[in-house]
Amino acid sequence: MLHHPTLDRLKALRLDGMAAAFAELQAQDRAAELSHAEWLGLLVDREEASRETKRYDSRLRAAKLRHVGACPEDVDYRARRGLDRGLFQALLTGKWIADKRNLILTGPCGVGKTWLGCALAQAACREGVTVLYKRLPRLFEELDLAHGDGRFPKIFRAITKTQLLILDDWGPDTLTAAQRRDLMEIVEERYGRGSTTGPRWKAATPTQSARVLRWISTPERARIWLCRYKGE
Questions:
Q1: What is the distance between the alpha carbons of residues 99 and 91, in angstroms, rounded to a whole number?
Q2: DSSP class per residue in 100-149
Q3: CATH placement of domain 72-228
Q4: 156 phi and psi, to 5 degrees?
Q5: What is the per-residue pLDDT across 4-34, written as a single tens digit (0 to 9) for each?
Q6: Which of 56, 130, 138, 144 is the most exposed place for a label (fewest CB within 10 A)?
Q7: CA-CA-CA-CA torsion sign (150, 156, 161, 162)
C-alpha cells in the first residue's frame, strides 16, 4: 500500500494517535464502508486515548514511586492479611483525595504498607491526580542542601502543590530542630490543599511523629483515614 501523505502531516502536527489510527484504518478493506464522520470519530477517539496515556505516564514518572509496578488490581484481599477490602476499595475511588483528607497505613514492619501506598498512588494517577513519593530521610537531606544553595522555595512549592504526597520511612532517629520545622511547614502549607499519606510513623521522641499525627488529625484539620494491615 502506498504511503499516504496525510500520515506525514498528522505526525508533523504531533497527532500520533490519529496517525496510528489512520494507518490502521487505511489497511482495512472495510474502512471504505465507513462514513467521513465515522472515520473522524475513530481518529479523534484514538488521539484522545493516546494523549491521556501520555499524561498518565508523565504523572507516574513524576511521582517517583518506590514500587512502580504496584497496581490496585494486584492487591491481595485474603482474610489472613487483615486488609479491609471495603475500606481499601473506597480509598481507591480517590474521594479522600478530593476531600483533602489524609491517610495513615498501619501494620507491622515489612508487611507491604509502602506497596499499598504506591498502589493507591497509581490509582490516583489514573484519575489525573498529581502524586509525589518521598522517603523522609532523603527528603530531609534534600531540604538541608536546598537551604544552602537557594533551591528551597522551588522544592518546597513542588512538595506542597502536589495533590497527593506520600511520606515514607520515618525512622527511629531523633529529628533535628530544622527537620521538625521543615516538616511542620510542609504539613501546614498543605492544609486544605492536598492529601498526605504514608505508613504509620514511629516516634523517636514523644514530641515528634506523634505530635505531627495529632496535629493533622485535629478537628479543624483534614481528618485522617486509618487503614490497618496485619500482613502474614
A1: 12
A2: T-EEEEE-STTSSHHHHHHHHHHHHHHTT--EEEEEHHHHHHHHHHHHHH
A3: 3.40.50.300
A4: -60, -45
A5: 788 888 888 888 888 888 888 888 877 777 8
A6: 138
A7: positive
Cβ-count burial 35-56 (b if 16+ within 10 Å, e if not): eeeeeeebbeebbeebeeeeee
Contact status, residue 78 vs residue 106, Cβ threshold 8 Å: no
Give the confidence band of 224 by pLDDT, cuts at 50, 70, 90.
very low
Q: List own/partner pairs for 52-55 with CB under 8 A and 24 or more apart.
A: 55/128
Could you give the CA distance from residue 159 to residue 13 in angstroms, rounded to a whole number? 34
When pLDDT is averaged across residues 182-198 and rounded to a whole number, the result is 88
β-sheet bridge partners, residue 196: 165
Write out the H or E segment, with its range, that includes residue 224. Answer: strand 224-228
Please name the amino acid found at residue 78. Answer: R
User: All 3 cell numbers of residue 107?
Assistant: 501494620
Domain ranges of the chain: 5-63, 72-228
Q: Which three cell numbers stand for residue 139?
A: 527528603
pLDDT tens sequence across 71-128: 999 988 875 667 888 888 999 999 999 999 888 887 777 778 889 899 999 999 999 9
Q: What is the DSSP letter of 68?
A: T
